[in-house]
Specification:
Arc Repressor Mutant, subunit A, two-stranded antiparallel ribbon, Rossmann fold, 226 residues, 7 helices, five-stranded parallel β-sheet, 45% helix, alpha/beta
């Protein structure tokens, strides 16, 4: 029977971690256990699949071996073969359930936040929004806009490579925008406050919207009072 590959948790350009009392990035542990379970027997292949450095894979693989999640055996041509132990399968299942619960909660909260932001946009007669930050949050905002009276016309992202994102054009700065817009919605999960400050400086606090989960509400109210 073919193994089912566990989805990875990646938000924009930064990995969003699962909570861990030990301080470990459980996203990496889950991804590593999934890759090994799918037959990955090369640390380079695992690194490529997870999008992390080879040295980090080596470090986490050693931890998984010490914890009894992964077994290592000698293979031909001075290679090593990695296998999940029963404890490894159990840990992979636990992390998968935790991931699904965590990601669903995030999606539900983000969708509700987007609905509130779009309602505010409607009150201010903003119909065309630019998103600042190419991320999973931006994707949720684009999908949520379909059910609202506002539209997303473009995305600002410093790492723009010219490609579109969920059917929307992506540019690396406001100066490169070629479409008219009414307001900016912050969707940057990495540098939300920096993005908020930059947009506010350019367009004023009234034309910058943010989402509650980014923790910018107090900053936004402060800008409007000043």
């Amino acid at each position: 029977m073919n193994a089912v590959k566990t989805p990875r948790i990646v938000w924009g350009t930064r990995v969003r971690t699962l909570p861990s009392e030990s301080g470990e990035d459980e996203r990496i542990v889950l991804g590593l256990l999934s890759s090994v379970g799918d037959g990955a027997n090369s640390q380079r292949r695992i690194a490529s699949e997870l999008g992390i450095a080879l040295g980090l894979v080596n470090a986490y693989l050693k931890r998984c071996v010490l914890k009894g999640y992964v077994k290592v055996s000698q293979a031909p041509a001075r290679r090593y073969a990695y296998y999940l132990t029963p404890q490894g399968f159990a840990e992979k299942s636990r992390l998968t359930v935790e991931y699904l619960s965590y990601s669903f909660s995030f999606f539900r909260e983000a969708k509700a936040d987007c609905a509130r932001a779009f309602a505010t946009a409607k009150e201010r007669n903003f119909k065309r929004l630019v998103l600042c930050g190419r991320s999973e949050l931006a994707e949720i905002a684009i999908l949520s806009a379909v059910d609202s009276e506002v539209s997303v016309v473009a995305i600002i992202d410093a790492g723009a490579d010219g490609a579109s994102f969920v059917g929307k054009p992506v540019v690396d700065s406001y100066d490169r925008l070629s479409v008219p817009f009414d307001a900016v919605l912050i969707t940057d999960l990495v540098g939300a406050r920096r993005a908020f400050d930059e947009a506010t400086a350019r367009y004023g606090a009234d034309r910058v919207l943010s989402l509650r989960l980014l923790g910018l509400q107090d900053a936004q109210r402060g800008e409007r009072k000043s």
